[in-house]
Specification:
The chain is an alpha/beta fold. It has 16 helices and 16 strands. The protein has two domains: about 240 residues, 3-Layer(aba) Sandwich (Rossmann fold); about 210 residues, 3-Layer(aba) Sandwich (Rossmann fold), CATH 3.40.50. The chain starts with a strand and ends in a 7-residue tail after the last helix. The chain binds adenosine-5'-diphosphate-glucose. Adenosine-5'-diphosphate-glucose binds next to helix 1 and helix 13.
């Protein structure tokens, strides 16, 4: 079996955060098979250095390219984060359609495609990740690459009516179709993708489930990503986890804890979540002084305006709710705009009676799975999960909510707080079994098995 070549915008090269589930999964796959992890170095440099930095870490070779300032602005901050991210998360209103940014996006995919192609050997398998590299497969083909190319999209594939708003959607779809296997988080994404290809590009569904489009045959399928559940369970019992739970526990005393943990992003439904908690307090005086919301949300992409606006909105909402309800010895919302080590998070998940995961749209949402895996099996908490998280497709033993329905979400929090122990346990056992069974190792194995099993790499 040939080498595995993974291409992703960020890698787990030394100095990067290697603790995330995806980093671990990709790392294991590369270590098992031998291979190369190709991507952006994270550095933004002057025009001169445009080659690859190649070095080995154990069995894994890294091949990293820098971005110039103009590339970083147009490709990453521009097209990827100001156009693709909002449209794919149904926020066409926040998207900025800038032709020049798209040109830079295409040019970076072209340059990275050339660099990546230079690394490839005949029997390698290429696995491209996410929305930054929708055109990378096509660039490899342009250089004559005929081997297998897989692609996995970590974010949702939106409904065709929404995607059609993106001026370059057809160009992107044409490029993506050069991949042999296109993996999505959910069946809903596969359905949206298939319908888009059929309606917009006349794709034909073949009897074996593959799609014939743009003169190529490809397969689209769902591979829901998981976490390293054993590792999260272990972390939740670590000294660091216990210390974090103890530190917070001293302050909240015997009040029930509701926890939210998210990258600060408008897709995560944070204002609606705070409003729902506010509504809970509006409607249930009996809960005053008896419940706390801990929201951890480290800012991300702060140079993009929409993210600065979100930060201000969250500051304002927290201030208002705390202003309305705080007492001498109780502040209802603790809002921490920073990241924490994963062990500490696991300890806080375990302490929390309720895990509140209410994105407006999310490819999967790993926090939902981490919350479940971190629970005390003898006394687990309750997961409240948005219908619009990819995770909801397989986690219907959670309390599922529509995050736009503020009253409905507030009711779900109350129900979770009052849930009898036997129901909590029943629901958690179902969720936990799924999280362990469909873990991140199962995800990468099933994707790579499907890709390896594709006999006709190129029609
Ligand atoms: P993200 O949008 O980043 O990922 P998510 O799946 O929730 O969202 O993963 C976030 C990760 O960051 C989790 O592992 C979480 O523990 C960690 N994290 C979040 N807040 C943190 C904090 N304050 N401190 C430390 N760690 C924190 C994208 C897609 C998702 C998809 C993943 C994986 O948007 O839908 O699930 O990729 O495919």
């Amino acid at each position: 079996m040939g080498r595995l070549i993974v291409a992703s915008n960020r890698t787990a090269a030394p100095g990067e955060d290697r603790a995330g589930g995806l980093a671990v999964a990709v790392w294991d796959a590369l270590a098992e098979r031998g291979g190369v992890w190709f991507g952006w170095s994270g550095a933004v440099v002057a025009q001169e250095s445009r080659g690859l930095r190649i070095f080995a870490v154990g069995a894994v070779d890294f091949a990293l390219a820098d971005l110039t300032g103009a590339e970083h602005a147009g490709f990453y901050l521009g097209y990827a984060n100001r156009a693709l991210w909002p449209v794919f998360h149904y926020r066409v209103d926040l998207a900025e359609f800038d032709d020049a940014a798209f040109d830079t996006y295409a040019a970076v995919n072209r340059r990275f495609g050339r660099l990546l192609h230079g690394l490839l050997r005949r029997d390698d398998t290429v696995w491209i990740h996410d929305y930054q590299f929708l055109l990378l497969g096509q660039e490899l083909r342009n250089h004559g690459w005929q081997g297998r190319v897989g692609f996995f999209l970590h974010i949702p594939w939106p409904a065709p009516e929404v995607l059609a708003a993106l001026p370059q959607h057809a160009r992107l779809a044409r490029g993506l179709a050069e991949c042999d296997l296109i993996g999505f988080q959910t069946r809903r994404d596969v359905g949206n993708f298939t319908r888009y290809m059929v309606e917009q590009h006349g794709a034909e569904a073949l009897p074996d489930g593959r799609l014939r489009v743009f003169g190529r045959t490809l397969r689209a399928a769902a591979f829901p990503i998981g976490i390293d559940a054993d590792d999260v369970m272990r972390m939740a019992e670590s000294t660091e986890a216990r210390a974090a739970a103890h530190r917070l526990g001293r302050i909240i005393e015997n009040r029930a804890l509701v926890i939210g943990v998210d990258r600060m992003d408008y897709s995560k439904g944070l204002p609606q979540r705070l409003q729902a908690f506010g509504r809970l307090l509006d409607e249930h005086e009996g809960l005053h002084g008896r419940v706390n919301l801990l929201q951890i949300a480290p800012p991300s992409r702060e140079t993009v305006d929409a993210y600065r606006d979100l930060r201000e909105e969250l500051d304002r909402l927290t201030g208002r709710i705390n202003g309305d309800y705080s007492d001498l010895d109780w502040t209802p919302i603790r809002y921490l705009a920073r990241g924490y080590p994963r062990e500490m998070l696991a300890g806080l998940y375990r302490l929390a009676r309720v895990g509140l995961v209410t994105p407006l749209h999310d490819g999967m949402n790993l926090v939902a799975k981490e919350y479940v895996a971190a629970q005390d099996p003898a006394d687990p908490g309750v997961l409240i999960l948005s219908h619009f998280a990819g995770a909801a497709e397989a986690m219907d033993a959670a309390l599922l909510v529509n995050p736009h329905d503020i009253t409905g979400t507030a009711d779900a929090i109350r129900r979770a707080l009052e849930m009898p122990a036997d129901e909590r346990l029943d629901r958690w056992q179902v969720l936990n079994a799924g999280v362990h069974q469909n873990d991140v190792a199962a995800w990468r194995r099933s994707f790579l098995a499907a890709l390896d099993g594709m006999t006709e790499a190129v029609p």
